Amino acid sequence: MAGESFKNKIRLRVNGILQKNKAILLVQLKSPVNNKLIWMPPGGGLRFGELMESGLQREFLQETGLQVEVNHLVFVNELVHPPFHAIECYFSVRKTGGTLKMGSDPELSDTEQILKDLQWINIDQLQDMQVAPAQLPALLQNASLPRQIPHFKNK
User: Fold this and answer.
1) What is the predicted pLDDT for the residue at 84?
2) What is the distance between the alpha carbons of residues 43 and 59, in angstroms, rounded to a whole number?
3) 8-state DSSP, 2
4) Has residue 152 been placed in a domain?
5) Measured between alpha carbons, how far is 86 from 10 in angstroms, rounded to an integer?
6) Would residue 151 count as lying in a domain?
7) Residue partners of 108: CB distance under 8 A and separation at least 6
8) Which residues span the domain enclosing 25?
9) In total, how many domains does the chain have?
10) Cys staple from 68: which of 83, 87, 93, 146, with CB 3.0 to 4.6 Å?
11) The domain that contains 30 carries what CATH number?
12) How far apart, in whole angstroms, are the C-alpha atoms of residue 59 and residue 49?
């Protein structure tokens, strides 16, 4: 069953907010938490020993085909919905290369894939959609995203 490996542990996730004009790039996936289709910024789990910046670049490339530069930390979301518990760090990102195409999640087998779609979605439409995290539409409605200072380990 998809998402079994995400249960009963704390999972650190990194996600990228890529905007173009008044749109944001979102992936649609079948949520392992509630088994419903949701839209959210591309990203995924951080591997042990992997820097957050590197993990986000890897996840973004796997899911979207795009290479990104990681900018500032926008917000942190904690998801607690037993047996799932995730700390999600959302960063502003900038496209640096690649070709947009829907990818896959290498943590899951072909039959377990949860990614369903990839689209640029107008920020004004987000209020009428199933979006995660729930505070994302309100944050994006502001003229500028909040800025938190990330603490990346020196390379």
Assistant:
1) 86
2) 5
3) T
4) no
5) 5
6) no
7) 2, 114
8) 4-141
9) 1
10) 93
11) 3.90.79.10
12) 15
List of the chain residues with pLDDT < 70: 1-8, 106-112, 143-155
- Any idea how long the chain is? 155
The pLDDT value recorded for residue 89 is 96
Position 72 in a domain: yes
Local structure of 129: helix, strand or coil: coil
* pLDDT reported for residue 30: 85
- Residue identified by tokens 């195409």 is 101
Closest CA to 15 of 110, 112, 139: 139
- Quick one: which of 38, 11, 16 has its CA closest to 92? 16
User: In terms of pTM, does the model score above 0.90?
Assistant: no
Strand partners, 81: 84
Whether 40 and 27 have beta carbons less than 8 Å apart is answered as yes
Structure tokens at 145: 């995203």
* pLDDT at residue 152, rounded to an integer: 46
Cα distances (angstroms) measured from residue 118 to each of 5, 30, 82, 97: 24, 13, 28, 17
Q: Which of 86, 88, 54, 59 is nearest to 70 (CA)?
A: 54
